[in-house]
Amino acid sequence: MKFTLLSAAAAAIAFASSEHDGKRLIRLSANHSEWLTDEQVEDLALRDIGFLDDTDGEWTRVFELGAARQAQKSTLHGRALQETSPYPAVATHEKVVRGVTAKIQTADLKRTLESFVNKFVNRLYNSTEGAQSCGWIYDQVAELASSVVANTNVKVTVRQFTHEWGQYSVIARVEPTTVVKDDIIILSAHQDSINWKDRPEERNIAPGADDDGSGTVTILESLKYLLATPEWTPIRPVEFHW
C-alpha cells in the first residue's frame, strides 16, 4: 500500500509538471499559489518577493502538519503533554557551555570564513565551483573527525548526501557512546550562494559571506569546539548538515 501511494504521488507530480509545461508551483502565501516559469520565479527573487517552491508538494505537507499540530494542542491530550513537559527553569549544562565558549576565538571564525568565501567565485548549487565548495567543507569536517582525541564520549562519522544537481550535502554525525534518547538534534546551514542580479549566474561573483558563509563557518567551528571539549557528553545523536 505504501509503495502504491508513493508511486501515485510521483505520477501525480510528473503529470502536474507536464500539464503545466515545466512550470513550478510557487506558493506566494499560505492560501495562494501559482504555476510560474523559471524566468518568473527569478523575477520574484530579483524583486525580493518571498515565495516557496511547492511543485513537489513538500510545503503543502508542512502546512498540513503545522495545522495538525495546532489542532492537537487544543485537545485534552495535547494540553496534558505540555503540562508534563515544561521548559527547564534553570540551565543544567552551564559548566559545559562555559567550557566550550571559553575556547571560541573570533579570529578563528574570521580566518575560516575568509578562506571559504575567497576560494570560489560563487557556490551556485549546479555549478562547477559549487561542487568544489562542498568538497572543501567535506575535507574540513573529515579532518576534524579523524583528529578526535580529546573527547572519548563520542564517535564521529562524515558522509556525502548526493542530489540530482552537482553539489552534494555534507553530514557529520556525532554518536554518543551511550545513547539515552532515541531522537536526534540537527544543526544546519546552507553553504551555496548565488548572484541573481546578472547573467550567466554560474560565473557571477557571489562570495556569500553572510548568506550563508557565516552560518556555514559557525556550525563548522561549533563542531570543532565541541569535539575539543571532553566534558561534552551528548545523550542523543547530533548531526551537522551543510
UniProtKB/TrEMBL annotation:
Domain of life: Eukaryota
An individual GO BP term: proteolysis
Molecular-function GO term, any one: aminopeptidase activity
Keywords: Aminopeptidase, Hydrolase, Metal-binding, Protease, Signal, Zinc
Requisite cofactors: Zn(2+)
Ranges where the Peptidase M28 domain occurs: 170-241
Family annotation (Gene3D superfamilies): Zn peptidases (3.40.630.10)
Family per similarity comment: Belongs to the peptidase M28 family. M28E subfamily.
Entry protein name: Peptidase M28 domain-containing protein
Organism: Aphanomyces astaci
